[in-house]
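Re: that chain you flagged

S.,

Sorry for the slow reply, it's been a week of failed gels. I finally had a moment to sit down with the sequence you sent. For the record, here it is as I used it:
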Amino acid sequence: MPAAFRRRCGFETRTFPLGAAGDILWYTVIMIITISGKPGSGKGTVAKMLAKKLRYRYFSIGEMRRAMAKERGMSLEAFNRLGEKQGFTDREIDAWQQRQGKKLDNAIFEGRTSFHFIPHSVKLFFDVNLNEASRRIANDGGHWRRFEVTTAVPTKTAIRRALMKRIASDSKRYRKYYGLDIFDRKHYDLVLNTTKMTPKEAARAIFIFLAKIKEKSRNVHKLRIKKGPYPQRVHK
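Prediction finished late last night. Pasting the structure tokens below so you have them in one place:
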């Protein structure tokens, strides 16, 4: 486990259950988690699950950008194109999350660049096959519209094309303004390929990862693992 990772982890002594009946793991929780990844990888769904389980605040940078686009009467696709020329579309929100990361505890930030602007966070990346991402979005009637598919009945092919445009625009903007390749795995503490994973399986993998930190480092007094009954309340 990298020494830099051990130094920057901040944990509390809250305990929460993990696992099926008869196989309960208890773990204490980190102060800030950042989740980046490809669209359709389930990062938003899993981030909300983690926030609910850990009783953390949850922030979606993507939703904030969509709100900015809507305020200007623009689609997200048009807003992204504007961002390729004008940095305010990213820099305003990125400056905001950087400030929040310095003053907040117990929060999950879901955003492409959150790991970069909150460097002391535990950094997660969700990968996914774009065909599977397209299938998930196509099967979610309320979800596909956010990906700027303009056809009346979105097909997986149309959705996949839209996702590729988003990834290309994101890559272009972040390299231009920050010299940052968000898809470089070296930035992250844990990379999950969620192509064949359910959200619950992805969440469990994250909790298990956190538990292993304790096993690998005596310098981290953050995670406890013990079997026991489902706690009736949060213990501080």
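What I noticed first: The chain has one domain: 3-216.

Talk soon,
D.
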